[in-house]
Amino acid sequence: MSGDASTVHTDGIPPDALSKVQEYLEPFHLSVEKLREVSARLRKDLVRGLGKHSHHKAPVKMLPTFVRATPDGTEKGDFLALDLGGTNFRVLHVRVVEEEQKVLKMDSQICAIPKEMMLGPGVQLFDHIAACLNDFLVSQNLKGQTLPLGFTFSFPCEQKEIDKSILIRWTKGFNCSGVEGEDVVKLLKEAIHRRGDYDIGSVAMVNDTVGTMMSCGYRDQSCEIGMIIGTGTNACYMEEIKNVRRVEGEDGRMCINTEWGGFGDDGCLKDIRTEFDVVVDETSINPGIHNFEKMISGMYLGEIVRLLLVRLTENKLLFEGRTSEALLTPDAFETKFMSEIEERDGGLENTQNILTELGLKWDSVDSRIVRLVCNAVSSRSARLCGAALATLANRIRVNRRLDHLKTTVGVDGTVYKKHPNFSEELRATVRLLAPDCDITFLVSEDGSGKGAAMVTAVAQRLAHQTQQQSTNVLVS
C-alpha cells in the first residue's frame, strides 16, 4: 500500500528530479507499522479521556453526549431542528415516517446573524433566534403545536444532560456577553417564554458529529460511529456506559464525542509531524491546539501543500526557482485545488490552470511534481484518519468481546465527499488496521438538521419507554 500512492503520478518526472522531490515527501509516507503505532497511542488516549480523574488533562476529551441509544426504527412524528454554528443559522421542520423508515426534511429556513449581534449581549442573540423560529412556525402552519426540538450548537460545550449544555467558550467570531458558563437550552427557552406566543417541547442538544451518526442510524441501525472530515475533523461512537467514569450507571451505552482533533496536543505525534506541520501550527490562530486536526483536515491541507511548493521552488526543483506573489501568500493554495489536481481524468489540465491562476510559469514536469506533492499530503491525511477510525472500531469490538464486528460509520465533510482518492485510501487503511471489523460507510444527509431531529426522536422514545416501565411497576 505504501508504494501505491507515491507511484501514481511519477511518470514524466526525470529520475534525478524525482529523487530530490521524494526527499521532501518522504516524511509524509507513513508505513503500516507507524500507522499501527499511531492507532495504539490513540487507544491509550481514549482510555485517559474516559477516566474520572485523568480526563482533565487528556488531549482527547471523550465528552459524554447523553445520547443513550441509536434509532431502532420505531421513531416517528414531527420535530424541529435548530442549527447554529456560524454566521447563519437554520431552522428545520423534520418528519420521521416509521412506515417508510425515512427522515424527511419538510422545509427549512436560513436566518442571518448580523455581525454586531455576534458581539452583543447574549439575550439579544437568543431573542433573534426565538423570533426567527416564530416566523418559521407561522410559515409552516405549525403555530399552536408544541414540537420537540433538536439543537445543534457547534461551539465548545460541557454537556450535563441531553437537555443541558454549558457553553465553555465562544469561537468562530462570536463573543456574546452573558452566555459563557451558562446553559444554552435555558437561554433559548427563556427567550421563547419572553415572547409568550408559542412554546417548544423537549429539547435535545446535539453535537454535529453525533448528528452525523444519527442521521444515518435510521437507514442503517448498525450505524454506531459518526465521523466528520471537512474543514475540521471529529468522531463519535457508542461506548459501554460502565467505561464512562464521569456518568453514573453500569448498564447500556452512551455516545461519546471524542473530540479527536486534539490528539497529539501532548506531543505524542511529534515523531510524525513534519517541519511544514510545525509552521502551519505556529501560524494558526490556536498554536499547540488540535494538532491531529491540523495534519488531516480541509482547513489546513492546502496550506501544507503551499509551504512544500514554496520550499521546492526555493530549492530550484519547481518553476525554475521563481515563485509568485500568490504562492507566497498564506492560504492562497486552497484545499479544493488538491481535489481538482488529483482528479483521475483531467487532473493535469486542472493543475496547469491552477498554476497559471497563481501566477506561476510552469512546464509539464512542474505540473506533475505539484500533483505528486498534493497526493503525498492528501494520502497521509486519509491514512491518519483511517488509523484513528480503526482505533474506534477495534475498541467497540473488544468492548463487546466479539471476534468479528460488523458496523456502519456515518460520514460527512467535504474532504471525504469531494476528494477523488480520499475515501478509498481511508477504507484501505481501516481494513489493514482493523481486519476483524467489517465496516460499511454511509454518507450522512444533513447531520445537523435531520440528525438533530433523530437524536430528539430517540430521546423521546427512551423517555416514553421509561414512563411505561414505571407505570407498569405501579400497576403491578
TrEMBL record:
| UniProt-recorded Gene Ontology molecular function terms | ATP binding; D-glucose binding; fructokinase activity; glucokinase activity
Question: Which superkingdom?
Answer: Eukaryota
Q: Name one Pfam family in it.
A: Hexokinase_2
Q: Which reaction does it catalyse?
A: a D-hexose + ATP = a D-hexose 6-phosphate + ADP + H(+); D-glucose + ATP = D-glucose 6-phosphate + ADP + H(+)
**Hexokinase C-terminal domain segment(s):** 224-458
**EC number(s) stated in the UniProt entry for this protein:** 2.7.1.-
Alphabetized UniProt keyword annotations? ATP-binding, Glycolysis, Kinase, Nucleotide-binding, Transferase
Report the PROSITE patterns cross-referenced here: HEXOKINASE_1 (PS00378), HEXOKINASE_2 (PS51748)
* Coiled-coil region list: none
> Kinase among the record's keywords?
yes
Among the GO biological process terms of this entry, one is:
glucose metabolic process
Family from the record: Belongs to the hexokinase family.
**Pathway the protein acts in:** Carbohydrate metabolism; hexose metabolism; Carbohydrate degradation; glycolysis; D-glyceraldehyde 3-phosphate and glycerone phosphate from D-glucose: step 1/4
A Gene Ontology cellular component where this protein is annotated is: cytosol
Protein name stated in the entry:
Phosphotransferase
Keyword hit for Transferase: yes
**Domain Hexokinase N-terminal positions:** 20-218
